Batch of 2 targets.
Target 1
Amino acid sequence: MGWATKKSRVWELRQMTLTFLSILMFVPFLHIHPFVMMSQASKSKVRIWYVTAWVLLAVEVALFGSLIYFFGSFSRGMLLTIAGSSVSYIVGNGMLLNQAKPFLQRLELGEVRELKWITSPNGQKRQELKAPMLDTPQLFIERLLHWRKQINNKVLHQDIDKIIRLFHLMEKKDIREAEKFLVRHSTVVNVLIQYDELENSNLRNAVTDKSKEKLVHVVRQAAVAIEQEVTEQFRMGMLEISAETDVYLQTLKSRNLLKD
C-alpha cells in the first residue's frame, strides 16, 4: 500500500514524476512548477489549483521581465529579482508537495469513476463524508475510499474494495439501479464511520471488541448480498437478451433466411 492511497508506492511515485522534475529545476528563472500545478489541476479537476497555478505563472513571467530589465547590471534590482525567483521556487514546489496527497487520492478516485470539478479537495470534506445522506454515486465512492484509508482492518479493506467494484459494475450496467443501490446500501457507510470511531477510541475490552466484530460481520454480509444483487442483475439481463435472440433467430427462420 502506498503513502496516500491503497495503490502501490511505485504507482504513487510515477504519478509524482512531474513534481520531482519541478524540484530538480532549481536554476533561477527555469522553474516549471506553475505548469506542473496546471497539469495536476486538470487531471484531478480541482479549480483552486488552477487559479493558484496561473498566479504562480504570472509571478514567474514578472520575474523574467525584471531579469530582462536589469540584465547586465549588478544592481539592487537584479539581486531582488534573483531572490524573488528563489522564493517563487520554494513556495511553488512547497505547494506541489503539500497537495501531493489529495492529488494522488483524486487520481485514485478517478480510476473508479469519472471525476467532476470541485472547488477544493479539503473544503468541508469531513462534514460531507459524515453526512447521513448519500447524494451522488461519486460521493458514495469517495466516502468508501475515505473510510477505507481511516480504518486499519484488512478484512474490511477487502470487503470495501469488493463493494466499490460491484457498485461500479452496476453503475455501468444500469444507472437507475445504481441510484436505488445508494438508498439500499447507504448503511454501509454509517457502519464504517462507527467502526472508525471505535478503532480510534483505543478502548480494548469485551464490549468494544464485540461491537467491532459485529460491524465487520455486517460489512461482510453486505458485500455478499451486493454480489448476489449484481449477479441477479446480470442474470436478468442475460434472460432478456436470450429471449430477444430467440425471437431474432425465429424471425430469420420464418423468412427462410436461416436453416434449422
Note: The two ends are 57 Å apart (CA to CA).
Target 2
Amino acid sequence: MVHEALAYSLSAPSRPGSLRFAGGGSKAINFLTEDHKVLTLHRSDAGMSPSGWAVSPQMFSHLSQLVPDARTIRLVSNGMIVNHFHLRKGENGVWLKARDVSSISLEQLTDYLSKQTKETGLYGSLSTIAKAGDKKPFESILSQVYRWFDGQPPCWEGVIGAGPGLTPSHDDMLVGMLACAYSSPNLREKAHSLLPSTLDLDYWTTSVSAGYLEQARNGYFSISLLDLIHSSPEDFNFYASRLLCHGHYSGADTLLGMWLFLNVKNKIINTI
C-alpha cells in the first residue's frame, strides 16, 4: 500500500537527511532538518503552511502516534521515512506565495475584530483591543513598523519571541504584517526588509517559529492566510474566521498584526 501526502509546499525543506521531532498537536507535527529548517505535517482539514505537507486525518492520526517514539526519521528524495513507514511526497506541489493585491480594508478588519471575543496571546481579546483603539500597549512593535515605513531597518531584538507557544505572539503578529506588506503593490518590493536578514531568528525565538518567520520574510504564507489576504470583501468574514481558529492564539495574533500594520499604513497615507 502506498502512503502519500495529499499536497506539499514547494518551498518546504527538501534536502535529504535526518529529521528531529520538534513537537506537535492535534493539527500539526513539526520536525527540524539537519540545517535547522522546519518541516511540518498538517492534518489536511487544517490547511497547510509554506513549510509543510498535508496528509489525510487518518494518516495524521497514525503518524502522531508513531513519530514521538520513532527510532529513525529521515527526509528522502521522494518523501519521509519514519522507522519502516514510508510517506511519499506525492505530485501535488504548490507555491504558497503572496502574489495578488489585497482588498482588505482597515474599516472591515476593525469591524470584524470588534465582534471577536477570541483571546490573543498577550493583549486580551480582539474585541476589547479593536473597540478601545488604544495603541499604547503596542508601542515597541509600532515604533519598528514606523521605522520601516521611513526607510530605516527595524530592530526586532527582544520583541520577537514574546508570548506563549511554539510560534510566540509577536512572531505571529509579524507574519500578519509581512502578509499585508507583500500584498500591497507599492510595498511588495521592500516587504522582505520588514524582517532584516541580519537578525538571528534562532537566537531570539523558537526553532519552529524561526522557520515560519523565514518563510514569511520571503513572501510565503499558509493557505489560510493567503486565502484571507486575497479574499473578496464578500468572503472576508469566512476566511478571517477560518484563520482565527488556527492554534490557541496564533490566528488571533496574526489578525492583530494585520490590524496594527494597516493602522500605520493608513495613518501614513492620510498624512501624505
Note: The first helix runs from residue 57 to 66.
